[in-house]
Design brief:
Distance between the termini: 38 Å
Number of strands: 38
Radius of gyration: 25 Å
Shape: globular
Helix content: under 10%
Structural class: mainly beta
Length: 619
Amino acid sequence: MRASRLLTVGAFLSASMTSATLADSAWEVLARADGITPADIPGVTAVWVPNTFNNPTVDLNGRVCFRAQIAGPGITNTGATANHLLIVQGEPGAWSILARNNSGVPGNFPTDAVISRTASPNNSLVSANNITDDGGVIVSGYMVGPGITAGTNDTANWFVPGSGAPVLISQGRDICPGTAGAQYPANVTAGSGLRVNSVGQALVALTLSGGDTVTANNSAVVLIGPGDDQLVLRKGSAAPGLSGVNVNPDSFGLFLNGTKYVFSGTLVGTGVGTTNDKAYFTNTGPSGALRIFAREGDPIPGFKGLTFGGTSLSLGQRPLASDGTITFIATLGGTATSLNNGAVMTENNGVFSILLRKGDAIPGITDSANPDFNGKVFSSPNSTGNVRTRDGLYAFEGILMNADGSSIISPAPATFVGVRKPDGTVVTVCRQTDPVPGLAAGWVFDGLNGSTSICASDNGVVVFKANMSNAKLGESGSALCAWDEVGGLRVLAKATQLSVSPFTPTGDTIFTGTPCNQITLIGSTGNNGDGGGTGLSSTGWLAVSAGDTPAGIYAIARIKVGSESDPCPADISGNGTVGAEDLAALLGGWGGASPDLNGDGTVNATDLAALLTSWGACP
């Protein structure tokens, strides 16, 4: 039965594609919403309701989680008895229902409570799009039951681990730790892209009321989770390392990796003005204490004459590595000029490095065959379209400028997708106006800034969705692409439509049994609290939603991406020999997710045995 759902990449692509053997596995359609096909849900006779799939997430083992609506006998979508909304996890033939409206809450905490929201049943369960490396999910929503009052304590978050029993981790009007009776807000439901780690903790910003709350301290950053919550920083608290200065933490841009976190805030107090009031906080470092790692206007250690200029320091998608390295985009002040006043940087316990800097020459950009690229240099990455993996690979949507600092005038190509490898080598994956690989002549990439939803995995694969067009055919659309060093750039799926009404898809990937005109990649919110991805897992599992909107047919699909042709996976260092350097790297990652030689998600004895068996020169 499983094999019948496996469709080859070649069968999904336009007939105009050249034949090629890709390194990736086959697409597998996990759920189809057409109002007819039965939903593969244990104990439920139903169909998926079209256009109700949220963005799916996936763990290291390929288990997919998503929220959707169902219809069928005994299922209603209105009022207090609505039971049409659910969150499922697993794969075909092995789905589990994590939560459903008009059913008991996960773990039965609070006792006898039921998930329900009469006035807005479609929102009884929140679509938070989160998952941990090992499949843990935060379920969030509204409830009724004994001791529960609407608008007061009727919202909650539960952690459903990858294995084990669910636990309640927060409820409306809970008491905030470290305060004299200050309460969480009535609505504590999770937001989209919430980062949760494998023990069920999440870093959240909350508005406080009651108890000792006044205007000067009515918000806080809190680490919620099983057991006791932890107050990280309350509005009005003293700024670490500064005298006479307090902090107002931001309510956005909070990042978690295991027990490490990073977030931003505004400083208030002695000597603080508009040129030095923005600060960035972390608990990385030997002591684990909260510290300011960067502040607007401060000198940058190790870079004489440079300061953090302006108010913008962007933390991107996945800024915090397991070893405490923080990756960010900075505006540079001091001796920097308009030609070099921006950089992608890292910080680790006070040591700063520059990965890319404005004005850098980018390999593969200057091209005698395309003079439009000549004289172009790096300007900046897209502030959200960049991600650094736990292995140190940095994938980004790059913006170019002329060498004199002026902006590139359209239609000259001004954007590209790039990768900075852990060894510092920069690779140009594709450029605006480049031909789309494997498609008919005339298909080219359109602007690659802000459209790609770029993802990257610890197995060295970069996945992105890029706009493309074909002036000869009068068509436009998008290509879902993958890149790694072995397999190169290739198209995983495509969705196009005519540029005139009616929008009719032509020759596109058949996720739904008909050509799709819509593919959604989770993008910048697809990150977890373990330092990995949720739309593209660290082991290369990719989950997407797709649709044929004219026909009203939708699907959830997955694929395992990554080159399978590495003849010597134990050569972690890439020097052609399996030896002491590779052994040290494997032992250094023991118990983590990388370097995982056999793809089971954990560095363990199996990987050690494989490395020792391969000892010596690679074939």
